[in-house]
Amino acid sequence: MSKLLVKANKGHGRVAHVTPRSAGWTYVGFDLHRLKPGETASGQTVDREVCLVFVTGKGKVMAGGKDLGLLGQRMSPFEGKPWSVYVPEGSDWSVSADTDLELAVCSAPGLGGGLPVRVIAPDDLGQEVRGKGTNTRYVTNILPEGKPADSLLVVEVITPGGHTSSYPPHKHDRDNLPDESYLEETYYHRLNPPQGFAFQRVYTDADGNGARALDEAMAIEDGDVVLVPEGYHPCAACHGYDLYYLNVMAGPKRTWKFHNAPEHEWLMKA
């Protein structure tokens, strides 16, 4: 199995755990909790900031000493927009499940920005359609660079069955602004119906002999997490199975500037 593929376990509690140390990088962390009613997930941000994303379900939230009440609404990631909570560094948080709950804990370094805890409601989220034809996908911006945070960028995307996404292939692995930013990235994948599968390739440019430093093609199943430390990272959803993914990105500068694969850039104009 590829070292870039993290298989969430099928139980409940914390079922996926990615840290900068386990991923071999510097910035992005990602945990996934699946909770039964009455179960609780909690944490301390210490020197990191966190975005709690209610992928599905409802729960009671405490963060930074504040009772934020009952949050969450949708029971499928393929319906509507999520509730989320931004938690700055130096804060405690806890979520107690009111229903079956799938909670994503997205983290990155705090930079002393002094930001407050805040609830990010579905009505606060912008949505957009990207691409056309069989490259159409539907994007919900949870924590984009135009909204306050120190390091985190968080977005979710739904790709209809038979469509491609994160395509034409692009990368963001060089700190070379204004042309390209360095951002580590995780993909948390869900499929509808859940017995389906999709594909994701993570690869770097070829050298003069056609060799690539990284080239991993993975079959993605429901609940998988993919690590993108560098390179291009397109996805393909198979016919009959819609693909959802939650992206977490962070790097030394909080901006998303990507570089398209030159050999496929003609698709942007087609």
TrEMBL record:
GO MF annotations in UniProt: glucuronate isomerase activity
Keyword Isomerase: yes
InterPro entries, A to Z: Deoxy-glucuronate_isom_IolB, KduI/IolB_isomerase, RmlC-like_jellyroll, RmlC_Cupin_sf
Entry's Gene Ontology BP terms: inositol catabolic process
Signal peptide: none
Keyword annotations from UniProtKB, A to Z: Isomerase
Protein name: 5-deoxy-glucuronate isomerase
